[in-house]
């Protein structure tokens, strides 16, 4: 029999039922008003009723909403609003949500939007999801480029939710109010900048990212986001990531899925193992090893014990100051082929909680040794 089935680490994400409360926003621009109208629409709500197929359901929702609203707004405005919505969703969830409305977090989101802008304007390629010039929807929601849009992550993250609904946030479900208020504040913080990034001029880009040569700015399509990259643990040479394997103990069986294990010495063709868990904390990865399956042996065909390639402290190059190393990350092959950029943003900083009074701040993101995010231009 199956002794233990893999359980989701997070529950599926669903917007709470409508409360009928809350006050709608006037919107900062026409495109913002359209995006907010979509989030409040039945089409957006239908897109998130099911657990699976949410990416496709959101696209159908926007198609149905556009057909219904053509008499209210122009076709061009509706199309631009859809592309803005997708870009904002990707920028919010590609960035570190824990940074909230800090200046670094907001600059990070602007950089994600800039990379989407460049992939959809002037450098449109099918392998990056671009179907036509200005296809920011296709570029920003390509699963091969942004794994946040894959089937599993759309189930648990809220990426495809209607998070701008009027009755959410401070006026909505009390159990969810803090989350929605924060994500709405992050959206509002970046909205104006992202509109200018997607639909503005080169002068707008120069104003938003002062000091960066325009040629480099327009050549930026990639970034290395270390916290989200592949995890590796060189101090634990017998740690293995298992996407799916069966472990057995006599007539009992356990399914090991999407988990890391530390394996012992081989017994016949299989391995004894212990659970290898870690938590990402500010100063590094905190490791915990549990003997949750005493006597069980995992299928040896799922274990290769090959050392991780490209595994370096914090994912940054040699010569960078790391201090005491708290985590290691894998680096992709393209990272060294481009030109690392350090971009500056001048923004209002409202803190990680998004409830600060706000102060004007200039912040830098990137450069060769940034442990959090490294924009890279001219990748081969």
What does this structure look like?
With 380 residues, the protein is α+β, with helices and mostly antiparallel strands. Strands 1, 4, 5, 6, 7 and 8 form a six-stranded mixed β-sheet that branches. A three-stranded antiparallel β-sheet has the order 2-14-11. A three-stranded antiparallel β-sheet has the order 3-10-9, with no helix packed on it. The protein has two domains: 30-229 and 336-377, no CATH class; 237-306. Mean pLDDT is 91; it is low at 1-6. The protein contains ten helices and 14 strands. The chain is 31% helix and 21% strand. It is globular. A hairpin with a 2-residue loop joins strand 6 and strand 7.
Please specify the SSE layout and strand pairing:
Blueprint: E1 2-4, H1 30-39, H2 42-47, H3 54-69, H4 75-94, H5 103-120, H6 136-140, H7 151-156, H8 177-199, H9 202-208, H10 214-218, E2 220-224, E3 231-232, E4 239-249, E5 252-263, E6 271-281, E7 284-290, E8 297-298, E9 311-313, E10 328-330, E11 339-340, E12 342-349, E13 359-366, E14 374-377
Parallel strand pairs: 1-5
Antiparallel strand pairs: 2-14, 3-10, 4-5, 4-8, 5-6, 6-7, 6-8, 9-10, 11-14, 12-13
Helix pairs in contact: 1-4, 4-5, 4-8, 5-8
Identify the notable features of this structure and list them briefly:
380 residues; 10 helices; single chain; 2 domains; six-stranded mixed beta sheet; globular; disordered N terminus; alpha+beta
- Total count of domains: 2
Which residues form runs of ≥5 with pLDDT under 50? 1-6
Biggest sheet character: 6 strands, mixed
Spell out the helices and strands N to C: EHHHHHHHHHHEEEEEEEEEEEEE
Number of helices: 10
Number of strands: 14
Instruction: Summarize the amount of helix as a percent range.
Output: 25-40%
Q: Report the mean per-residue pLDDT as an integer.
A: 91
Radius of gyration over C-alpha positions, nearest whole angstrom: 23 Å
Structural class: alpha+beta
Shape: globular
């Amino acid at each position: 029999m199956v002794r233990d089935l893999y359980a989701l680490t997070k529950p599926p994400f669903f917007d709470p039922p409508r409360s009928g409360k809350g006050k709608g926003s006037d919107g900062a621009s026409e495109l913002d008003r359209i995006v907010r109208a979509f989030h409040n629409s039945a089409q957006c709500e239908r897109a998130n009723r099911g657990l699976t197929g949410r990416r496709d359901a959101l696209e159908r929702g926007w198609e149905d909403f556009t057909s219904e609203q053509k008499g209210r707004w122009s076709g061009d405005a509706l199309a631009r609003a859809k592309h803005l919505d997708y870009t904002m969703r990707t920028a919010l969830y590609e960035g570190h949500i824990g940074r909230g409305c800090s200046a670094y977090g907001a600059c990070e989101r602007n950089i994600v939007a800039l990379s989407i802008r460049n992939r959809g304007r002037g450098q449109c390629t099918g392998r990056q999801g671009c179907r036509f010039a200005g296809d920011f929807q296709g570029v920003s929601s390509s699963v091969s480029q942004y794994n946040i849009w894959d089937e599993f992550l759309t189930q648990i993250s809220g990426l495809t939710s209607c998070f701008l609904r009027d009755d959410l946030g401070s006026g909505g479900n009390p159990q969810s109010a803090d989350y929605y208020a924060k994500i709405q504040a992050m959206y509002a913080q970046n909205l104006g900048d992202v509109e200018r990034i997607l639909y503005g001029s080169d002068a707008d880009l120069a104003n938003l990212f002062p000091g960066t040569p325009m040629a480099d700015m327009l050549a930026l399509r990639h970034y290395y986001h270390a916290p989200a990259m592949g995890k590796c643990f060189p101090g634990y040479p017998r740690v293995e990531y298992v996407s799916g394997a069966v472990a057995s103990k006599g007539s009992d069986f356990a399914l090991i899925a999407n988990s890391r294990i530390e394996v012992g010495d081989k017994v016949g063709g299989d391995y004894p193992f212990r659970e290898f868990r870690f938590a990402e904390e500010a100063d590094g990865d905190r490791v915990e090893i549990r003997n949750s399956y005493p006597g069980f042996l995992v299928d040896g065909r799922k274990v290769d014990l090959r050392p991780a390639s490209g595994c370096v402290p914090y994912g940054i190059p040699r010569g960078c100051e790391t201090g005491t190393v708290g985590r290691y990350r894998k680096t992709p092959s393209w990272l060294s082929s481009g030109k690392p950029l350090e971009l500056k943003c001048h923004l209002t900083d409202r803190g990680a909680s998004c409830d600060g009074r706000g102060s004007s701040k200039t912040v830098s993101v990137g450069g060769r040794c940034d442990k959090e995010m490294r924009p890279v231009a001219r990748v081969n």
